[in-house]
Amino acid sequence: MFDNLVTFFKSLPSSDSGKEHFSKSDPRLAAAALLFHVMDADGERRTVERKRVAQLISEAYGLKGEALKRLLDDSEQADQEAVDLYSFTSIIKRNLDEAARIRFIELMWDVVFADGTAHELEDNVVWRVAELIGVSTRDRVTMKQQAALRAKQTVQEE
Questions:
Q1: What's 71's domain CATH number?
Q2: Residue 60: inside a domain, yes or no?
Q3: Nearest to 82 by CA among 128, 46, 14
Q4: Residue 46: which of 111, 129, 121 has the closest Cα?
Q5: 15 within a domain of the structure (yes/no)
Q6: Which residues lie closer than 8 Å to 48 by C-beta, 6 or more apart?
Q7: Which residues contact 3 (CB under 8 A, 6 or more apart)?
């Protein structure tokens, strides 16, 4: 399930010039901020969700220690300060083609289902993000169904 997230993060263009700071226009920051947003949508942040996202970002970009902490902190702060989703979705839409945007919605669903269930507020966040980045209702629902199936299979395997 999270292999797709690693692949997605690796596909994002990097505006990092070797610095430990991530600008507001960095697609990695925008994507991570949206993941924080969907994690928090149901009012319950689960440690396992944050740990998985941190691990995947670390693997995808080779970020460790202070650099990883900085991206996570910057992303979380950017999400908390944002007045809307457009500041993030516009960056995603500019930097990703249609297939990659659909894959991002799939990854958002994977984060939603990481705890085994989708709350209606999480569903709403994914719907709004999908609309803003130009992912069709059909693709959004298909990605939700696939993520739900993967989550159910993961629970059965454990």
A1: 1.10.3680
A2: yes
A3: 128
A4: 111
A5: no
A6: 114, 115
A7: none
In this structure, is residue 16 part of a structural domain? no
Residue 70 forms part of a structural domain: yes
Span 65-118, pLDDT tens digits: 998 899 999 999 999 999 999 999 999 999 989 998 998 898 889 888 888 889
Going by pLDDT thresholds of 50, 70 and 90, the confidence category of residue 4 is low
d(CA 109, CA 82) in angstroms, rounded, equals 21
Structural domain tally of the chain?
Answer: 1
CA end-to-end distance (rounded Å), the chain: 14
Spatial separation of the C-alpha atoms in residues 128 and 15, rounded to whole Å: 26
Q: What stretches of 96-136 show up as alpha helix (H) in DSSP?
A: 98-112, 120-133
Residue 85 CB neighbour total at 10 angstroms: 20
CA dihedral defined by 31, 116, 98, 86, rounded to 10 degrees? Answer: -40
d(CA 143, CA 151): 12
Can you read off the two tokens belonging to residue 149? Answer: 């199936």
* Domain with 59 in it: 3-10+21-157
